[in-house]
Structures are given as structure tokens and as C-alpha cells.
Write the C-alpha cells for this entry.
Amino acid sequence: MVVFLEIIRIIDCGNGRISAKRKSRRKAAEVPKKRLDMISRKNGPGRPQKVVPSEVVGRADNYRGILALVWDKLWPPLSCAETKDDVLEAIPNAAPYQREDFTANPSLLLAILKDPKFPKLRQPRINFLADSFAGLGKVTPRRSRDICARERAKAQGIGQIIRFEFYVECSCGYQGPSRDHACLKCGAPIPQLCFAELGQYLNLQDQNFSSEE
């Protein structure tokens, strides 16, 4: 950014005074203007978020599935790893799925394996490694596990639909939601033909969705 300052020529008329107007103009010229890119942005309250929790738990679930498929081949060489190079040698031969994720940060993987709390059993080991690594080093392995635990607890707390109803127009004059798949006013049941047509519609929608993938 280029700032142009006005050059003012001041002439002393012999009385040793400079007009107030000229003084103010000179002072304004000497005060540097603030650059726009030097204005700090105001952050929101709390610490800046390093990761997106939903992405961490999604990645962890994906890693759990991958590790479960290759664990029997992966664990023997991985359990003997003492250096980053050992980790890099163990992964490619046993983990063909998303190996780049694991080889990109061997130091993190090695630190997780050396954690005193690393489990002794197969599935807990898989879960511990997947949840710890899902933060990709942007947060500590412990923080990554805490995020996964919190997000799964939140998901379990979400309600589940245990019953569905229809909007019906009955010959008795009632229009509105059904109750137990029947007219709320007179109790007339919804014809089975409606359920058959609904099933055909849902199957068609499922086929269309699968063909788009």
C-alpha cells in the first residue's frame, strides 16, 4: 500500500508564527494511516477450534473398519516398531486401505502405540488406535479420543422414530394425521393397498439413489 503525503511549504513571514491551519495540515501529514491489513480480526469467544468434531468421529469410525480388516497382518510388525522407519515399513505391506493417512504421520502413530494406556486386547486396541489417530495430530491423541467419545454419546442421545403415521382424508370428513394407521375420527384403517404402493415407491427411490452413486 502506497501512502502519499502532502508536502507543505511553510513560509515564515518574519513574525516567527505559523498559521494554525498550516500546523494542522502538517500534523495530519505526519500521522501515518493505519493499514487495513494491520487491523486485527476479532475472534469469537473461547479457544479457536482446531478440528471439526463430526469429522474426527467419522474418520475414527472409518479407521476402525479399516484396521479391523488388516489387523491380523498389521499388528505383528507394528507391535515391534521402535522408530518411525519401523512404522513406515509395517504399514504398506499390511494396510492397503488409505495407507497414506497412516504413513503421513508415523511419529503420531508410534506415540499412540507407546501410550501406557494402550489396551491389551484386539478390538480395544483397534478402537484406541483409530480414535487416537483420527485427530491427525491437530489435537493430542487424548483429545481426539475425548472428541470421539463425546460425539458418539451425543449420537446415542438423539431420538429414534419408533412409529410413523400418514396424513389421511377419510370419507367421514376427517382430514389430518392418522393414529395407529387409522382415521383419528372414525377409526377406519388405512387400506393395505396404500402400504403396498408405499413399499413400491420406497424401493424405486432406493434404486434411483443407488444408481446415482
